[in-house]
Amino acid sequence: MLFHTWHFFLFFAIAYAGFLLLKKTRYMNLWLLTASYFFYGWWNPLYLFLIIYSTALDYYVGLKLDHPSRRGTTNAPFFCIREPRKMWLTLSVINNLLLLGFFKYAGFVTDNLNTLFSWLNVGLTIPPSNILLPIGISFFTFQSMGYSIDVYRGQFQAEKNFIKFATFVAFFPQLIAGPIERARTLLPQLQRGCRISATDISDGLSLFMVGLFKKVALADFLAIYVDRVYGAPANYSSLSLVCATYAFAWQIYFDFSGYTDMACGLARTMGIRLTLNFDNPYTATGLRDFWRRWHITLSSWFRDYVYIPLGGNRQGKILTCLYILLTMIIAGFWHGAAWKFILWGLLHAVGRILTGDLEKTALYEKIPRLARQLLTFHFVCLGWVFFRAEGISEAMLILRRIFAGTGSSSEVPVVMFAIIAVIWMYQLIFSSRAKKILDWQPLRIALMLLILIYLMIFTTVGHEPFIYFQF
Amino acid sequence: MNRSFISSFDEMIMVKVMKNQAPFSSNAVRLSLREWAVTIIPLALVVLIIFPLTWRRLEKFEHGANFRLAQHYRDDYWLFAKWARTAGKEYPIIFLGDSVIWGIYVGNDSTLPAQLNNLFGKNKVANLAIDGLHCVALEGLLKYYGAAISHKKVILHFNPLWLYSRKFDLSGEKEFPIHHPRLLPQWLPRIKSYHDSLEVKAGIIQERYLPHISLINHLRLCYFGNQNFSQWVVDNPYKNPFAQISLKIHAASEKNSSEVKNWRERKLGIQNWQWVSLTDSFQWKYFVKSIKLLQSRANKVFIMVGPVNPYMLTPESLRRYRTLQSDIVVWLEKNHIDYFIVPDMPSHLYVDASHPLKEGYGIIAQRMFTDDTFLNWSAE
Predict the structure, then answer these.
(1) Facing residue for A461 by CB, picked from B6, B199, B234
(2) Is residue A80 part of a domain?
(3) CB A340 within 8 A of CB A391
(4) What part of B 170-209 touches A (C-beta under 8 Å)?
(5) Would you tell me how many other CB atoms lie within 10 Å of the CB of residue B243?
(6) Are residues A134 and A206 in the same domain?
(7) Half-sphere exposure of residue B293, counting CA atoms within 13 Å on the CB side?
(8) Does residue B115 fall inside a structural domain?
(9) Domain ends where: A194, A222, A252?
(10) What mean pLDDT do residues A154-175 have?
């Protein structure tokens, strides 16, 4: 049930009506949970067992971790099982990682083992894994795992009400593709009698419409060109490949941030504020800046639960670089069970390490802002080649063709790039001192009118899934 | 990711969230409720009223004598509605039917409406037929796009071939690609052989009530090779999409009817069709609904039944068809509706089971023109 479908529209109309009726009663969370489980079960009812199991275990672990006398952290690593609290936390972490590993990475592991066996001439073949990846598993396991760690650290008191906790894990607007919420931001908002102001409604509507525009009008539009060129890169000139890479950079941004905007908009109409997930990432002036702006809830999750526990920047330069490398590789692997995602993470880690000190220098600051933005954008685009290509060999082929300047005939949809240029200009203005211009009421109304007219006239509501659903 | 990054990040996200001042969004355009109202009203006005009305005036099609919509516009119901409006103003008689009336194997001047016009000596009959328009679709077409022909005389063609099997009668259960799905009842009554997703069905319902959607479909069909805007832009990277819109609708191209062979030359086999009885027929039920709808709109209805090629049927199948035909006559007479049963023609004048050759249309027109019921009906 995608947000931009009639199924969802009908579902939300019913879910929202029920929410409005019950929001002042103790049944509010039960209703939200029922709606969320219905939403999740729509894809495959069997997935419900998975999310219920994961939720139940982390709820129980949370209670075990939360004993008042046992709050606070120790210096021992959290996977140490000599202490009961660490054992419970280890159980939660391992359980979530096993779920992810089994459903998401089993195929990757068996494929690679089979390749290794064949390379070593071992007469052994592991049957290929045909496990269907449960949608949104990467998101809800991380959210649930984050809760356990927060409770262990004493940063958040365990939730005693199972329904409320289960609603936090399964809250339908953000269940499938985030934002990955923290317990301390979402759980307190799931209180009975939450107030919905007129601003919540109008903001929710604004967010949803802009998200819908990003997804249906822009991401799906760019996808047509990207799929064509990346589907047969050997047939296209270097210019076409460069343009398709630019187009993909914007496609994935519009797709994912569009989903997030819609999710935030839906939650906002219920008076619930979800965390900002994208902050004009293509206006970033460096890689560090980029990761502050791109998929913010994931990068902060990795920062708080992987990078800092590993040691962060407290153990010298070399170890800091190593931790960045490890964190980014894991983050890359989170995006998909393929070597290309690992390489993508590695590329960003190397870029991040190499430019980390450079970005702090006065020399770097002297480079015009636009040039820094363009440099960052092009590095990010280099990473997107690996991210989007079918595999590493295809990515290398694309890069070879791009840098060799091959092919004479190029297909560059002018209208498409004109639209991107306008949106990029908008974002540049948004992140500059001239931002106030965009607050001018007639301009905002005119922009929304254009968005709605474009949606009504130039797009047909389709069924293209969101890119991040596959993660 | 060092400490300064972490602290600045915390400052940016967490502090704002915890203080209940979560940023609105990265860059979304933000409107207040009042501004939404200010936006929605002109939007509805522009998209739902001004745009379709302006377009209707801007776009021209030259409808000379014996005009019919080109075959590739058969799914363009916006254009049908426009042609119906024009025909409703300029012609006293409207002829509605499927490809038999549209004249799929003949040129613009050899169709049945054209041959009737020849006999009338003036352009009196407008050809509003559409290829593949079965009775259920006809009812949908009249209901949602045919209001402009109210109060007119309407000849409604009934092609019994839609009843030759349960499949084409739409009373069967096996799914198959049905002509004009956008004109079918989408949910009630349920057509077991028609399946589409909720998305598609909801889109169809929207199209019926929001004129800009059928206009968009029209633009896509007429100017963008039936592609949506995004697909077209990618396929034509250096073309200006707005330059495509010529604002001119072309008539159907002429067909060289001498090239069309009759059914024997085409080596079509003899058929043993079972025929669905009138009482069980879904298509007939909707044909009756179409008649009632037209009558409720003060239309004067005349029914033409056939032709059906009797030589292509086995004796048993022909006997069943004759029973069906007489049942139709009984119903029409019982309901006091004027009708004309197309008589059997020589075998070589049929292209297939129902379509006549040019000469066949000539004979049908002649027979109609000597039919008192038709003459009286058309003269009133």
Answers:
(1) B199
(2) yes
(3) yes
(4) 197-199, 202-203
(5) 8
(6) no
(7) 21
(8) yes
(9) A194
(10) 92
CA–CA gap between residue A212 and residue A207 (Å, rounded) = 8
Residue B121 burial (CB < 10 Å; 0-12/13-18/19+)? exposed
Q: Which residues in chain B have their CB less than 8 angstroms from residue A6's CB?
A: 198-199, 202
> Could you tell me the residue range of the domain that residue A135 belongs to?
6-194
CB B28 within 8 A of CB A207: yes
Please say whether the beta carbons of A57 and A95 come within 8 A.
yes
| Amino acid (one-letter) located at B63 | H
Instruction: For residue B271, give the DSSP letter.
Output: B
Residue B3 lies in a domain: no
Q: Is residue A280 part of a domain?
A: yes
Q: What is the pLDDT of residues B98-141, one digit of tens each?
A: 999 999 999 888 999 999 999 999 889 999 999 999 999 999 99
Measured between CA atoms, the residue of chain A closest to residue B34 is A202
Contact list in A for residue B38 (CB cut-off 8 A) is: 445
Strand partners, B350: B356
Domain that holds residue B82: 43-378
Q: Which of A161, A177, A194 is the last residue of a domain?
A: A194
pLDDT digits (tens, 9 = 90+) for A249-294: 999 999 999 999 999 999 999 999 999 899 889 999 999 999 999 9
Q: Are residues A291 and A400 in the same domain?
A: yes
E strands in A282-436: none
Smallest Cα–Cα separation from A300: which of A270, A281, A275?
A275
Structural domain total, chain A:
2
State how far the alpha carbon of A2 is from the alpha carbons of A17, A179, A454, A463, B201, in Å.
Answer: 19, 16, 20, 7, 17
**Cα–Cα distances in angstroms (integers) from residue A451 to residues A269, A445, B46, B220, in the given order:** 20, 10, 14, 20
Chain A contact set for B23 (CB, 8 A): 276, 279
Nearest residue of chain B to residue A447 (CA atoms): B29
For chain A, say whether B21 makes contact (Cβ under 8 Å): no
pLDDT at A214 over 80: yes
Q: Which of A335, A348, A378, A463 is catalytic?
A: A335
Q: Is A335 part of the annotated catalytic residue set?
A: yes
The answer to whether position B35 is within a domain reads no
Measured between alpha carbons, how far is B97 from B354 in angstroms, rounded to an integer?
13
| Residue scoring higher pLDDT (B19 or A368) | A368
Which of A276, A411, A412 is opposite residue B26, by nearest beta carbon? Answer: A276
Determine phi and psi for A9, rounding to 5 degrees.
Answer: -55, -45
- For residue A440, report the phi and psi dihedrals to the nearest 5 degrees: -65, 120
pTM: 0.84
Same domain for A426 and A329? yes
Pairwise CA distance, residues A385 & A399, whole Å? 8
At residue A101, the pLDDT reads: 87
Dist. CA B12–CA B4, nearest whole Å: 12
- pLDDT, position A216: 87
Q: How far apart are CA A36 and CA A172, in angstroms?
A: 5
Angstrom CA distances, A72 to A65, A67, A78, A384, stand at 10, 10, 12, 41
| Cα dist from A453 to A202, A223, B48, B72, B246, whole Å | 18, 21, 11, 28, 22
Residues A184 and A210 in one domain: no
The verdict on residue B148 lying in a domain is yes
A417, A277: one domain: yes
Q: Which amino acid is at B297?
A: R
Task: Tell me, yes or no, whether A468 lies in a domain.
Answer: no
Interval B264-295: pLDDT, tens: 999 999 999 999 999 999 999 999 999 999 99
Radius of gyration of the CA atoms of chain B, in A? 26
Tell me if A464 is assigned to some domain: no
What whole-number distance in Å separates Cα of residue A229 and Cα of residue A388?
11
